[in-house]
Specification:
heterodimer; A: 3 domains; 16 helices; 16 strands; 22% strand; B: 659 residues; alpha+beta; 4 domains; two-stranded antiparallel ribbon; 29 helices; ATP-binding (chain A)
């Protein structure tokens, strides 16, 4: 394994509990400390992992995101005692905490405020627009009436006012990861159905096209590695690297990512932006996160590019990582080992009777493996957004069709009956 | 660019999955276990794959296959739980299977473990095999539906046992199996379904290379549940046998009767042909032939004579093919002389015409497989009562955590059958029973919860009817006194079981803290109240419900359990022993440290298990005693007390704080 030039042996604080990231830090031979929720303490103790319990949920409940800076003093002191030189966020909810710690280390509150750009979709869109990225029309809405106004204005501009089929708009929560709080508005009745807790939020016009995400490892403001993930069925299945049609546009996508990095003034770490590419190849910015992506995308990268993206995340987050080290770490973007895909499985039943994995699937040339067992807990919890999948099916093949096709075909299959 | 996927097939996948897991740091095993379990699952579906998996078994432990899960410590595993785990759909069945492979490799000395020796592992596996005969001898089934549903788990388990039998050989279990059958039957349980299944499975061993003695034993049991006599064997069916009886003269009938009577007496099992014979005799024969058919002792014979008409009525009502085991209960009931107790005859007569509640009726019919046999729920219930009155120590709790209720039924059957005959109709007809606790009446019908909905239905009819009520009342009594600052059983037991239970109570655990306090004082008190040499010669008269710490074969604490001391006496070899009733009907478990309750050979009566006095005390944690029949506790020798303390400390005591 690569080892870092970490001469003064400061520690890296992993903000959030994630075994793959812990393993990555360990394998890099870096001193580290985990800042995780209290319920993980026992596990950490059992395996002698350096651990500081921090009740993120408590702060989330009682303070706003902007208050995190003030509340982070105690955590900073704890980490200072541990000789922490760097904090790396692992989850959406810990982005601002890691930034607050880094801001205090550098005695620069701006570092913290910068992180809020990734955590508030309103600020994020404005910043993107200011930086010259192509975005949809958007506004911040405080109530249903404002959403209606927006919906009408958009359709008025599109000359669709009063027509049966109107252009949809999207309502998104400011600060939720993934698809939580996302609603598609097609009629005014959909607006009436919104809950009061959904406000304030972001409303934006609909963009068409193929959706991709990028996993971008940035160091010193330059792209060290760009992975492109194609969303096959949004929220359910994805493939990396993408189909050749998208791959052909890698240069253009890289350009968009570079524009994004400039617009947001990103120096170090990992970003996970999402874009639409329309039929004419025009790229629109959807949103960007500064954390490890969901959907097992890192597993897909690991499978096809033969490097550990969890390690890459930590290396790129550290300004002290040397250029040479990074160069030897990352492979060539165009030299992938086939295509890998993941299909998230969500039970559609209330109570799981049993698991059904069809033989045709297991015998499919693209099939790699799946993670499903009949769960001990048979009752399926109700979740907002996509929630946590009850299993993942992985595909891998050098022919992208053998991966893409089952990713599309099995989305509607009931694995749990 | 051509990429070859899945190179090397399943074997290579297994290897990779194993190596990845093996190389992971201990804290990270969790991330790689699932994938290894998935590949193992696939492999285990084929016999060859199972063999390949087994090759890795010696390294499972070091690779972290069991890291962080309930299978981590092989010394804590229970043979009795293996069957359930292997059948469980989900990851549990895979880990359980891998754990058994590890155990086989330990038994074969391909792998070593500080706490489980090769002979420990062999012993464990022998028990596992004896408990999993359905996997070793899969039953032929045409029900493809069922197979498909059960399919993969069963298939994998069968492959596992095929490998186990290959590695450990079948003969080694043939004696275990026969021993298991004998061991279970010597206790004369009321419920015999499991033993019958084992006997049917053992029949398949007749085609294997087993020794002559085992073969004879299997044949004896096999005949006992099928065709005992030549005549029965020659008949095509039970019905044909029944018709053939009409041609027999008195002497021939007597011959049939003695043969069946003897077989039942010897094995405790009743053949369906026996039912046909007895029902025929009941209409056509004299008392003498009936005495033979029931295999009665001289006491039983005189009681049959005295109550012949009642018995005829009882046979007519209750002895049918589905209820045939009650014929054994009937014989034992006569020998116990229960019918001579005044409330019993009217109590039984009331039962025959009882108006049973709809839901109870349904439960009884379903549980006894009596639908379409022309029986009524009343017939089933009467048969059940006969069994309970004849075999008070044959009552079992089945797969339910209701040892207290089973203990109560057994105690009442012995000492107060009249009371039992009050409770049964109350529950079956009124859906309610009541008891008085410290001046207040408790009605079971008013109490919520209880185990009724989840009650596992493989139970005798009386338990099926009464246990849901008893369990609720017991729980309510405990609830009422739970904050009193001492163990609730102190007050609950005498109120629940009856005034036979002594009021004074002692326990090794400090209430609330669960710390062990004054263990030596506890031991001395038990000696001074229960051991003849120290309690001024007082004999035990009524059973004593006590609490024990059950331990595993390795002596580890497994849980608390309720049993009843029946009597304390010298055995034929002059060892002073405690004879007790264990409602789990599997009394001869191995509790570690060489402590193995026995069920035969040491003066045990049917259904009793026993241990030498001091070994029993080492597992005891609570008992009732009569302070007026207490000797000098200081008279107990120091060495005896210390020896017991050592046994306790080194077994269940490790789980607790000693202060």
């Amino acid at each position: 394994m690569t080892s870092t030039q970490n001469d003064n042996q400061y520690k890296t604080a992993l903000i959030g509990w994630s075994l793959p990231s812990i393993e990555a830090a360990d394998e890099l031979g870096r001193p580290f400390v985990i800042v995780g929720p209290p319920h993980c303490e026992q596990y950490a103790e059992k395996y002698d992992l350096p651990f500081i319990a921090w009740d993120f949920d408590h702060y989330k409940k009682h303070y706003s995101m902007e208050d995190v800076w003030e509340q982070s003093e105690e955590l900073y002191q704890l980490l200072k005692e541990e000789n922490t030189g760097l904090a790396v966020p692992l989850f959406e909810d810990t982005v601002e905490w890691a930034a607050a710690v880094n801001g205090r280390i550098k005695e620069d509150p701006k570092v913290f405020r910068h992180s809020l750009l990734f955590r508030h979709k309103g600020k994020m869109k404005r910043r993107a627009l200011l930086g010259g990225l192509k975005v949809g029309v958007f506004e911040e809405a405080n109530n249903k009436e404002e959403v209606k106004q927006f919906f009408r204005r958009v359709n008025d501009a599109m000359l669709k006012a009063g027509e049966e089929e109107q252009d949809p708009v999207h309502v998104k929560a400011f600060d939720k990861a993934g698809d939580v709080g996302h609603r598609i508005i097609r009629t005014e009745a959909d607006i009436d159905a919104l809950e009061d807790e959904a406000f304030p939020n972001l409303v934006e016009s609909h963009l068409d096209g193929v959706e991709v995400s990028c996993e971008v490892f940035v160091h010193n403001g330059t792209i060290q590695f760009l992975n492109i993930t194609e969303y096959i069925v949004f929220g359910y299945s994805m493939m990396a690297p993408p189909s050749p049609e998208i791959e052909k546009q890698r240069k253009k996508i890289r350009g968009a990512v570079q524009a994004l990095i400039r617009a947001f003034d990103i120096q170090y770490g990992l970003i996970h932006p999402e874009f639409f590419i329309d039929e004419e190849g025009k790229i629109s910015f959807i949103e960007v996160a500064a954390r490890i992506p969901g959907g097992n995308i890192f597993d897909l990268i690991k499978k096809t590019y033969d490097f550990n993206p969890f390690q890459a995340h930590i290396l790129c987050s550290d300004p002290n990582t040397s250029e040479e080290e990074l160069q030897s770490f990352f492979p060539k973007e165009r030299k992938s080992k086939g295509h890998a895909g993941s299909l998230m499985v969500y039970p559609r039943v209330k109570t799981i009777e049993k698991l059904h994995v069809p033989e045709e699937l297991e015998e499919h040339p693209g099939f790699d493996r799946h993670t499903m067992f009949t769960p001990a807990q048979r009752k399926v919890p109700e979740m907002e957004g996509f929630g946590n999948p009850q299993g993942v099916v992985f595909f891998h093949h050098d022919n992208h069709d053998h991966v893409r096709e089952p990713l599309r075909d099995y989305v509607d299959f009931d694995f749990y009956i | 660019m051509a990429v070859q996927m899945n190179t090397g097939g399943e074997e290579e996948t297994l290897k990779q999955a194993f190596e990845t897991l093996n190389q992971a740091a201990p804290y990270a095993k969790d991330m790689y276990q699932t994938h290894f379990f998935q590949t193992a699952k696939k492999m285990a579906e084929k016999e060859k794959g199972m063999q390949q998996l087994y090759e890795y078994a010696p390294r499972f432990e070091e690779a972290g296959v069991f890291e962080g899960g309930p299978w981590e410590e092989p010394s804590k595993l229970q043979p009795a739980l293996v069957n359930g785990s292997l059948r469980a759909d989900g990851v549990e069945s895979i880990v359980a299977l891998l754990s058994e492979l590890r155990m086989i490799s330990l038994a074969q000395q391909k792998h070593t473990h500080p706490e489980v020796s090769a002979s420990d592992a062999k012993k464990y596996l022998n028990e596992v095999m004896a408990n999993n005969l359905d996997f070793i001898f899969p039953e032929e089934t045409d029900e493809t539906d069922k197979q498909e549903q059960q399919g993969k788990e069963t298939e994998r388990a069968q492959n596992l046992f095929a490998l186990m039998v290959d590695e450990l050989s079948l003969q080694s279990i043939s004696s275990t199996l026969i021993d298991e059958i004998k061991r279970l039957m010597v206790q004369r349980p009321i419920m015999t379904d499991r033993v019958r299944l084992m006997i049917r499975k053992a029949e398949q061993l007749l085609h294997e290379d087993v020794d002559e003695q085992d073969r004879k034993a299997i044949e004896t049991f096999h005949h006992a549940i099928s065709t005992v006599t030549k005549r029965a064997k020659e008949s095509q069916s039970v019905n044909e046998y029944r018709s053939s009886l009409q041609d027999l003269d008195e002497q021939a009938l007597s011959g049939e009767a003695s043969a069946f009577g003897q077989s039942m007496r010897d094995t405790g099992l009743v053949s369906p042909y026996h039912v046909a014979l007895v029902r025929y005799l009941n209409r056509n024969a004299d008392i003498k032939t009936m005495q033979e058919a029931l295999g009665l002792s001289s006491k039983g014979k005189s009681h049959l004579k005295e109550h012949f008409e009642t018995v005829q009525e009882l046979i007519k009502v209750s002895i049918h093919l589905p209820t045939r085991q009650s014929l054994y209960g009937l014989a034992r009931m006569l020998e116990r002389g229960v019918l001579s107790q005044p409330p019993v005859l009217p109590g039984l007569r009331r039962l025959i015409d009882l108006d049973i509640k709809q839901d109870v009726r349904k439960t009884l019919m379903e549980a006894s497989d009596s639908e379409q046999e022309g029986l009524t729920a009343g017939d089933v219930l009467t048969a059940g009562v006969i069994s309970v009155l004849g075999q008070p120590l044959g009552i079992g709790q089945g797969l339910n955590p209701t040892c207290q209720s089973a203990r109560a039924l057994s105690l009442w059957s012995i000492h107060d059958p009249g009371y039992l005959l009050e409770l049964v109709p109350r529950a079956a007809r009124d859906g309610d029973i009541d008891m008085t606790f410290e001046g207040q009446t408790i009605h079971s019908k008013d109490l919520p919860g209880g185990l009724a909905p989840e009650l596992h239905k493989e139970l005798d009819p009386v338990s099926l009817v009464l246990v849901p009520h008893l369990d609720r009342i017991y729980a309510d009594m405990v609830r009422r006194v739970q904050f009193r600052g001492d163990d609730p059983h102190k007050w609950v037991n005498p109120a629940f079981y009856g005034d036979w239970i002594a009021k004074a109570f002692s326990k090794v655990f400090q209430h609330n803290t669960q710390n062990v306090i004054d263990y030596q004082g506890f031991v001395r008190l038990f000696y001074a109240t229960h051991h003849r040499d120290y309690n001024e010669g007082h004999e035990m008269i009524y059973p004593n419900p006590v609490g024990i710490c059950v331990t595993t074969v390795y002596g580890n604490f497994l849980g608390f359990h309720a049993i009843t001391i029946q009597r304390i006496a010298y055995d034929p070899d002059d060892t002073y022993r405690v004879y007790f009733y264990n409602p789990n009907n599997d009394s001869s478990q191995n509790w570690g440290q060489g402590i193995e309750p026995s069920v035969r050979g040491h003066g045990e009566k049917e259904g009793e298990s026993s241990l030498p006095f001091h070994e029993f005390v080492s597992r005891l944690y609570a008992f009732h005693y009569n302070p007026y029949e207490q000797g000098d506790s200081f008279a107990v020798e120091k060495e005896v007390v210390e020896k017991i303390e050592q046994l306790a400390r080194e077994s269940w005591g490790q789980k607790f704080q000693w202060v």
